[in-house]
Amino acid sequence: MKKIAILGSTGSIGTQTLDVVAMHPEQFQVEGLAAGSNIELLLEQVTKFNPKKVSVATKELADQLKPQLPAGTKIYYGDEGLIEVAAETDSEFVVTAVMGSMGLPSTLAAIEAGKTIGLANKETLVTAGHLVTALAKKKGIRLLPIDSEHSAIFQCLNGEDASSIRQITLTASGGSFRDLTREQLQHVTVEDALKHPNWSMGSKITIDSATMVNKGLEVIEAHWLFGLPYEQIGVLLHPESIIHSFVEFRDSSIIAQLGNPDMRVPIQYALTYPERWSSPSSRLSLAQVGKLNFKEMDFERFPCLRLAFECGKMGGTAPTVFNAANEIAVSRFLRRDISFLQIESIIEDVLSKHQVQSEPDLMVIQEADHWARQLATEWKQ
Ligand SMILES: NC(=O)C1=CN([C@@H]2O[C@H](COP(=O)(O)OP(=O)(O)OC[C@H]3O[C@@H](n4cnc5c(N)ncnc54)[C@H](OP(=O)(O)O)[C@@H]3O)[C@@H](O)[C@H]2O)C=CC1
Ligand SMILES: CC(=O)[C@@H](O)[C@H](O)COP(=O)(O)O
Ligand SMILES: [Mn+2]
């Protein structure tokens, strides 16, 4: 029986992780669950999975939930609560599925405590990839990808190392507005942006997909997970999201991973690695699909992808600032405070004012993150 903890259990990845757990009740024991403010759903999850520790965003929420919890479940809150669930349970495996760079301290704490990581929270690796991967290496900890593209690359590699690779290619659906011109993007709404063509996900990542920031974050995530230079990481537009990503090896063989878009597959693969278990995901019929489409990425149409490559290559605090500015810009767009195209204006403006620091330690990373958030919050046209 594998003992696990889930950070962000009430979100899109968190609930699908619990779906996988529920399909294999003899194989998993849930030791800890951390949520933000959805205490009704957290309580349902506690009733069903009986964790020993839970955490919520604030003391007020913890006080509200506490009287309803079974005697065996302890409750914590805030950043320390998240770290408690990440590092201080009997779990051997932690799924990191909170949204944003707020997941960094708990991910570091889980690694420090010797837990295997099922990594969904890509912002953590973008913000401080050098610190996370160095700590994982020092502790001998595996970072198993949950993000669909990275799970695909991981499956294609199947143990082969970076020296066999000519290039990896991450596929991109193009997001909610892939067929719109930049002119048309001026008038799009939040509701339209939230309609992803292929995946049902949390609102922040759905907006990131429409701006192509998501693919930019994934390029940086791939750099850290697979130890590849940016010159060996490509992106290809693939509207159907059937090929989740592929690897071209140095002998010119290409291996791709395919399947219907269903996050339960990469989540389960991370949880059961190196084994493959049966899954309820619908089978892919290529005969029914008939045809798959591909297109070169247009960096003029999707400038955030170009910015992400530039920040990745610059390194240091550049990706930290790219990510933090984007997190604030997306939350402002979702609050209808700025327009869709102003998301990229904010990222560009904040980056243009940033003095990149190389080899940043955790404190420098946190300062850069904080600085970028403040500028992005105050940004006006
Ligand atoms: N959704 C997907 O298919 C994919 C997601 N990812 C990545 O996975 C991560 C999660 O994405 P997704 O599941 O879509 O996001 P959601 O917005 O659906 O979920 C976010 C989770 O974080 C929790 N949370 C928010 N604030 C806090 C807090 N202060 N303390 C603890 N938990 C908190 C939320 O709790 P609550 O709701 O209770 O407030 C929720 O459980 C992101 O980094 C995303 O990029 C990667 C690939 C695919
Ligand atoms: C499911 C998943 O992994 C998301 O990150 C997904 O990749 C979003 O797709 P696009 O960013 O390609 O629209
Ligand atoms: Mn992805």
N/C terminus separation: 55 Å
Mean pLDDT, nearest integer? Answer: 98
Q: Into which percent range does the helicity of residues fall?
A: 40-55%
The major sheet is characterized as: 7 strands, parallel
Order of helices and strands: EHEHEHEHEHEHEHEHHHHEEEHHEHHHH
Strand percentage lies at 15-25%
Helix-strand makeup class: alpha/beta
Weakly predicted, low-confidence segments: none
Protein name: 1-deoxy-D-xylulose 5-phosphate reductoisomerase
Binding site for 1-deoxy-D-xylulose 5-phosphate: 122, 148-149, 173, 196, 209, 214-215, 218
Pathway: Isoprenoid biosynthesis; isopentenyl diphosphate biosynthesis via DXP pathway; isopentenyl diphosphate from 1-deoxy-D-xylulose 5-phosphate: step 1/6
Keywords: Isoprene biosynthesis, Magnesium, Manganese, Metal-binding, NADP, Oxidoreductase
Outline the structure in words.
The protein is of the alpha/beta class and 381 residues long. The mean pLDDT is 98. The protein is built from 17 helices and twelve strands. Helices cover 47% and strands 15% of the residues. The structure holds NADPH dihydro-nicotinamide-adenine-dinucleotide phosphate, 1-deoxy-D-xylulose-5-phosphate (DXP) and manganese (II) ion (MN). The site of manganese (II) ion (MN) has 4 residues, from helix 7.
